[in-house]
Design a protein that fits this description.
The complex is a heterodimer of chains A (112) and B (110).
Chain A (H helix, E strand, L loop, with lengths): L3 E3 L3 E4 L5 E3 L1 E3 L5 E8 L3 E10 L2 E4 L6 E7 L2 E6 L8 E8 L7 E2 L3 E5 L1
Parallel strand pairs in A: 2-12
Antiparallel strand pairs in A: 1-4, 3-9, 5-6, 5-10, 6-7, 8-9, 10-11, 10-12
Chain B lengths: L2 E5 L2 E5 L4 E8 L3 E9 L6 E6 L5 E4 L2 E5 L3 E6 L8 E9 L5 E3 L3 E6 L1
Parallel strand pairs in B: 2-11
Antiparallel strand pairs in B: 1-3, 3-8, 4-5, 4-9, 6-7, 7-8, 9-10, 9-11
């Protein structure tokens, strides 16, 4: 079974801090994704990467950046955390464009 | 712009009471429609992919169908363990992005 591991289940950070959310997948998948999930808004794509060297913005990239130095690891960076970035963050990976996404269990981030 | 609308927002069933969840979509060049199940505190878990109108897929008590405008997730004789949020998503053409609906919260009472 594919395993997508997010390093933290819960994080509490202060406004203005730089925050790193880490994600590792163990199935040699090419594609990795970061979504955020908010009540009433559903899942929204922040960034994705379809190759170690390629990163693309999703629907809501403002205030975020990403890093993918190794195929199995995809990090989401909040450059200067703000309270409106309080959310559940979900990492996912997939083998190909028509392959299903495999999600981690999420990181619930609270910015105070 | 791709749009996915799921209905109802919430559904409460008695154990054994069959029903259907709806996913209406607008997308130019559908490459796949995906169903996921999400339990509280966990990430979504993949259920089905449907690629073209008329296609059907089954897994235990679940059956997914697809038309050109919507997909249904039929739940036959549900059990309490089927309680979860069910998410629908669509992919378009060669775009890697999936657009998700807001989900249907299903509660099955014993």
């Amino acid at each position: 079974d594919v395993k997508v591991t997010q390093s933290s289940r819960y994080l509490v950070k202060r406004t203005g801090e730089k925050v790193f959310l880490e994600c590792v997948q163990d199935m040699d998948h090419e594609n990795m994704f970061w979504y955020r999930q908010d009540p009433g808004l559903g899942l929204r794509l922040i960034y994705f990467s379809y190759d170690v060297k390629m990163k693309e913005k999703g629907d809501i990239p403002e205030g975020y950046s990403v890093s993918r130095e190794k195929k199995e690891r995809f990090s989401l960076i909040l450059e200067s955390a703000s309270t409106n970035q309080t959310s559940m963050y979900l990492c996912a990976s997939s083998e190909g464009i028509n392959s299903p996404l495999h999600f981690g269990n999420g990181t619930r981030l609270t910015v105070t | 712009e791709d749009q996915v609308t799921q209905s109802p927002e919430a559904l409460r069933l008695q154990e054994g009471e069959s029903s259907s969840l709806n996913c209406s979509y607008t997308v130019s060049g559908l490459r796949g429609l995906f169903w996921y199940r999400q339990d509280p505190g966990k990430g979504p878990e993949f259920l089905f992919t449907l690629y073209s109108a008329g296609e059907e897929k089954e897994k235990e008590r679940l059956k997914a169908t697809l038309t050109k405008k919507e997909s249904f997730l039929h739940i036959t004789a549900p059990k309490p363990e089927d309680s979860a949020t069910y998410l629908c998503a669509v992919g378009r053409g060669s775009n890697y992005k999936l657009t998700f609906g807001k989900g249907t919260l299903l509660t099955v009472n014993p």
